[in-house]
């Protein structure tokens, strides 16, 4: 009885709609972040001082751009990108309007994680492949990326969890999802039950993503 009174403001349909929006934002943004962040991370790795094609100038420019985007707090980045978002998708509100800032906020983060994962690949494996006459493209596709696969999956997992956090912050500025529900009902209308349920769902989503990522890393890891 006490429990039913505490959850008096809970609307299952509203919770399901907000959960679906959060999952949609995280899924779409993660796919697009992988499409941008993975090549950018490979480029950073290849042009670094220890890379296959060292290029200090290009590496410095790429590294500076990545650091600039990573240093801007997500809510501010969301607001700064409103003109770009409007030009790309026609709206800065809702799930559609949240995707561009989510991607631009997470892709540089993922790129740096990819660079670090590639840096951990044993140099002797790369040198052995070079000795066999493999081209740089073959080394990247058939040695670097496969050898770094556990680290790359771990990087994608960390990025997905960061995106859950970003979507919650995006809810503050009208992106929808569980963050929007928590702000509009839990904070502005003092409906504590809504706040508790949304927080529990976000925690469950993060735990689920981490468990899935750990399972995939264990599956592909050679150790």
UniProtKB/TrEMBL annotation:
ABC transmembrane type-1 domain residues: 19-213
Top-rank taxon, per record: Bacteria
Cellular localization per UniProt: Cell membrane
An example Gene Ontology CC term for this record: plasma membrane
Record keywords, A-Z: Cell membrane, Membrane, Transmembrane, Transmembrane helix, Transport
Membrane topology reported for the UniProt record: Multi-pass membrane protein
Name of the molecule in the record: Methionine ABC transporter permease protein
Organism expressing this protein natively: Asticcacaulis excentricus
Lineage of origin: Bacteria, Pseudomonadati, Pseudomonadota, Alphaproteobacteria, Caulobacterales
């Amino acid at each position: 009885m006490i429990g039913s009174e505490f959850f008096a403001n809970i609307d299952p349909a509203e919770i399901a709609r907000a959960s679906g929006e959060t999952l949609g934002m995280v899924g779409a943004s993660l796919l697009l972040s992988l499409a941008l962040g993975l090549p950018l991370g490979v480029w950073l790795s290849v042009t670094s001082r220890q890379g296959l094609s060292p290029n200090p100038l290009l590496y410095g420019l790429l590294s500076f751009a990545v650091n600039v985007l990573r240093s801007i707090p997500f809510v501010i980045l969301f607001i700064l990108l409103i003109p770009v978002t409007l030009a790309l998708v026609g709206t800065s509100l809702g799930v559609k309007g949240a995707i561009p800032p989510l991607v631009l906020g997470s892709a540089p983060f993922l790129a740096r994680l990819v660079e670090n994962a590639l840096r951990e690949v044993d140099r002797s494996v790369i040198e052995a492949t070079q000795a066999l006459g493999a081209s740089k493209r073959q080394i990247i596709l058939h040695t670097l990326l496969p050898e770094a696969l556990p680290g790359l999956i771990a990087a994608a997992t960390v990025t997905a969890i960061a995106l859950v956090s970003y979507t919650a912050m995006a809810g503050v500025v009208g992106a929808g999802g569980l963050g929007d529900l928590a702000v509009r009902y839990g904070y502005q209308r003092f409906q504590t039950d809504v706040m508790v349920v949304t927080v529990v769902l976000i925690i469950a989503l993060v735990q689920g993503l981490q468990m899935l990522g750990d399972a995939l890393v264990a599956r592909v890891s050679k150790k």
